[in-house]
Amino acid sequence: MDWAGSLCYIFYSIGAVVSGLAALWIARSGAEDRSDRWAGVVALALTANWCFAAASFRYNHAIVGLTEIAANLAWIFVLFRLFANDGRDETLRLVRPVAASLAFVEVLQFVLLLVGHRYAVTQELAELTFETAALFRGLVAVGALVLLHNLYAGASQPSRRMLRWNAAAMAGMWAFTLNFYTVAYLASRFPQELVALRGLAIAFIAVPFALGFNRKASGLTFSPSRAATFQMLSLAIIGAYLLVMFGLASWLDMLTGNAARLTQVGLVIAAGALALIWLPSKHLRGWLKVTAIKHLFKHRYDYRNEWIRFTRTIGRAGLDEASLSERAVKALADITDSPSGFLFLANDEGNLEPAGHWRWPGLEVPNNPFASEMATIFERDGLILDFDEARAGIEHQGELAFVPQWLVEQPKAWAAVPLLHYDRLVGVIVLTRPLVERKLDWEDFDLLGIVGQQLASYLAEQAGQEALSEAARFDEFNRRMAFVMHDIKNLSSQMSLLLRNAEKHADKPEFRKDMLVTLRNSADKLNTMLARLGRYGKGGQEEVRAFDMGAIVKTVSDRFARNHKVMLVRGEAVQVTGQPDAFEQALAHIVQNAIDATDTDNPVMLEVYSDGLAGVVQIIDSGQGMSPAFLRSSLFKPFVSSKEGGFGIGAFEAREMVRAMGGRLEVESREGLGTRFTISLPLKSANEILAGPRAAKQAESA
Hints:
Layout: H1 3-29, H2 37-56, H3 62-84, H4 88-91, H5 95-119, H6 123-153, H7 157-187, H8 192-211, H9 226-252, H10 258-278, H11 282-296, H12 303-315, H13 324-336, E1 341-346, E2 352-358, H14 372-381, E3 385-386, H15 387-391, H16 405-408, E4 413-421, E5 424-432, H17 442-505, H18 509-533, E6 545-548, H19 549-561, E7 566-571, E8 575-578, H20 580-597, E9 604-610, E10 614-621, H21 628-633, H22 650-660, E11 664-670, E12 674-682, H23 684-701
Parallel strand pairs: 7-9
Antiparallel strand pairs: 1-2, 1-5, 3-4, 4-5, 6-8, 9-10, 10-12, 11-12
Keywords: ATP-binding, Kinase, Membrane, Nucleotide-binding, Transferase, Transmembrane, Transmembrane helix
Protein name: histidine kinase
Organism: Qipengyuania polymorpha
């Protein structure tokens, strides 16, 4: 027995067993109120008999032909009885003649079978008989498929739910039969591979047909796993690709000579190269996924799997893992298959600032990325901004006037998802468009909105933890200051005791000698503490008054120029109001940080001028610069220092001192380029103009 005969024996044996078991199951457990129940049992039993005959004899044996005719007549009768479940065997009188015509054509197979085995004495007559039989079988299959279409299309909705499994199984059977006999007619022979597969196809068809007789069949639905579906589609594409290549190679076998061999080798190389380049493509996988979801599933997303993936992405924390900001962007981008994204978080003033990205390092973000009105719309309406709609001039909440133009001009920008926590805007994530372009729909908006709220809660929780940690560090600092105050109190007690004793013993040389030693020790202790603590805490106690900002800048510049190249490129005399010592201390902090960040050969540049409303000092260095994440989360955080042994409150205190004087401290930095700090204090003249109305208002209230 050759390999084709072995496959026929195995596959038809499987078909016989499965069909027989299906018939037995319907007879014992099928719905008793189905009028076509016993017709289905007989059809499956005769099909099992035909499969048994095909496994036992050659496929062109007369017994196989007779049993196939009996099985086909039984299936035609089953198809006719299916109309009775909807009452249409009485009302649609056209069904009877069509079914009778199909049965008559199938009965003609007896005549053709007899002619083929008794009277086809020549090769031409045998081929004519074979082609006629194949043509008649194809006509029966076409007629049966037409009846099935009319059966299902004209059935009521309850009948459709009851008939869908039976109709689907019979449609598969007749479709396979049509293709089988079409190929046989064109080739004038039975193809061995399809002959073997036909037995396996019968086994696959018998199962859903029997399932249709289940009492709960109307409630059953086919819900394939998405992962399994994608894998099966991928395998189907690969299989189709290999079949095409195999067909081309077989066709080239008809060529002769060296040209044929060369062409075959070239085809194999080209096919392999195409497979390596095309099949692993992300674009192909994305297209396959979108196509499968669109045509095979009711919903775009498998919500259970999406939630599991989201939770694992967010919960994957550790020393070697990405920050929460980066994981948040990735978790949202994975949902829409976006290749990258950018996170913006709201600062203390409610403005959105860059806070991190995932695979989008080259995005140039301006100083004010989102207008305050746009942030208000995000917070008030929870709007998910579709940039394609914005580019087309479509708006929903009056947002077109405030959409960031720099993102509209960025072709990769696809959607902006607000992160809302208790109706408060925590941040916004901008996603790039997927590799397979598509339009955002209602399911995207619903899922992205819910996930955005969940991400906002994680980010808010992290901010709360950072605030608690900062408060704990302040508490530790206060405890340390308590020890310093205790030492100062001891020194104060010693000084007081020394003064009281001096009133009595000041004329004694020994006492004066001991007094000098005590004073020297006390002074050393105070100097040690002062050197350790610096001048922290003084700014809030000094009285606000007018002073020359340019003079202080010149003094600080000269002092630091002794140890590093510091250039005062512009030094105007500017009268401002504030606390001179606090301003000098804040300026010294920033200049020292600029010197620490700059190479010895590169200067730190200072300039002071008036912009009409405020005195402005700019400190510019050409150091390594700072990342947006460091600017937002670390630069002005107390007790966080990038310098070894640093106290970590210099920049924080400088900003607080400037704010206490009614000014502002701003910073701009680019990694690899440098940093610019800007201190602004109100001008004396501007402050006097504003003081007049304030004084008048206070007098009226008094």
